[in-house]
Fold:
Amino acid sequence: MSNTESLFTPVNAGSIAMANRFAMAPLTRARAEGHLPNALMAEYYSQRASTGLVITECSMVSPETSAFGNDPGIYSDEQVAAWKQVTDAVHAKGGKIVIQIWHAGRAAHPLLNGGKEAVSSSAIAINDETHTPEGKKPYTKPRALTKEEIAAIVEDFRKAAANAIKAGFDGVEVHGANGYLIDQFLRESANTRSDEYGGPIENRARFLFEVLTAVTEEIGADKVGLRLSPLNSFQDMKTEDPVGWTAWLAKELNRFDLAYLHIMRADFFGVQKADVVTPARENYKGHLMVNMGYSAEEAAQAITDKQADSVAFGVPVLANPDFPERVKAGAALNEPNQNTFYTPGAEGYTDYPFLDA
Structure:
């Protein structure tokens, strides 16, 4: 008996029946030219359909909010039709797929968006540089959103969720992590507002809760997941009390009856450290998905010990389209090629070998 056996048991995430406890974490790959999904993306995602749930890369809910250049969107009829080839390909392999819906907020550089000014919870720039068509440039200072604009973005999330179902997705994952717009409201380092969207956590979470209300009303809570990153300092983010923050949000999220809550347990840069999985598990009553740096053995132990209900793997699935099969066989893993994570074309995208090759 394999010590990873618990990873191969089925589980439900809301209405999504996962064949196993593996999820493919959302990974930006910048292959969507003109913000349109394509046949190459359909091949990439369908290759990885043996994970219990495929979560796509972050996809824009509004035009001119790109943070990467060739990131996909889900706001137009053309994009809905283009995503259909992706969902059809995954479903043809027996897989389940949700789309991560997202607004980049202050991470959207004007040079990537026809000169359109970046927006955020507050007028605070990310203290870093990003890639633009004119080379690396500092992030710009965003404009603080008005209440009317916040309400309009909530409706953009609602429409994106409706479009996702039209495109054949099994659900959506709301991106509340990694220093993008929802996170820019949630975490005090980026939110210095003095109205009902700023100040205490009850106010900073208002935008997230409005988005979740709209999206769950539109497509059903059993098709909606949420990703949070309490510790991640990526894009100049900080949480003063990540454990208390996680516990409070996890408890409040119970009222939405979501398909799952997806918690990133670490910081990309190792700056902020704490155990945020335990408070999430203690306070959240639904399906808990965990992510970041799990080996298959540690993931299986987390499932066995009921610390989590599923585990999302990023880079291992990127480089190993048949990652669950390799884990089951105890086989060696392909090494990821970091030089091709964001480059165009099939190299380092759809050409990683399968075990049986």
Remarks:
- The radius of gyration is 19 Å.
- The mean pLDDT is 97.
- The chain has one domain: 5-340.
